[in-house]
Amino acid sequence: MNLQITDGEIDIRPSVAKPYPGFFHEVGEERFRKLVFDHYESIKTSDIAFLFPVFDDDDFAEAQKHAADFLIEISGGPDYFIQTRGEHQMVGRHAPFRIDEKARKTWLELYIPLLEALETEGISPEYIESFWNYLDLFSMWVVNTKS
Ligand code: HEM
Q: Binding of heme: at which residues (predicted)?
């Protein structure tokens, strides 16, 4: 399975394909939520923890839920994010946070062991890769600060 991080550059926003719907269907909503939950848990002890509301359990749980709702929606699941948060506006929603290329790479790296675990659980590598490719490219959109 090929989970490589592409070098990004500030203000370069590539076109991005959504993950294959087969990824969400094969993983299932419960396991998908656990994936995003686990990613946020690993953020807590990472170099990018300072960007997130790690000192407020309720705010952190809300952030976790919003991220899962969004990724489920983008992966072909129910439109939870639009219903509760409105328009996606991901660039604007990330604008208050100083996100540089290094932070992006850390954010992505934290997904790698979690996605490798899905492969060992029997999820098709090509589905996992399609989700990864989405994260790899779309994460470039939210970089707003020079390293
Ligand atoms: C594919 C890439 C990404 C997606 C799909 C994504 C998605 C989201 C979503 C849906 C939210 C919640 C927005 C809201 O409900 O208002 C969010 C919040 C946030 N994201 Fe991202 N994100 C991505 C990449 C990143 C990266 C690379 C970083 C930083 C390294 C980052 C940092 C944050 C922060 C700090 C918040 C605010 C947390 C809070 O609610 O306090 N995101 N992201």
A: 66
pLDDT single digits (tens) 57-104:
999 999 999 999 999 999 999 999 999 999 999 999 999 999 999 999
What is the predicted ipTM? 0.97
CA distance 95 to 13: 15
Beta strands in 5-133 (DSSP E): none
- For residue 88, say whether it is annotated as part of any ligand binding site: no
Residue-wise DSSP of 98-111: ---HHHHHHHHHTT
Q: Can you read off the two tokens belonging to residue 101?
A: 């290329």
Residue 69: its pLDDT value, please?
A: 98
Distance from residue 42's CA to the centre of ligand 1 (Å): 14
13 assigned to some structural domain: no
For the chain, how many residues are written?
147
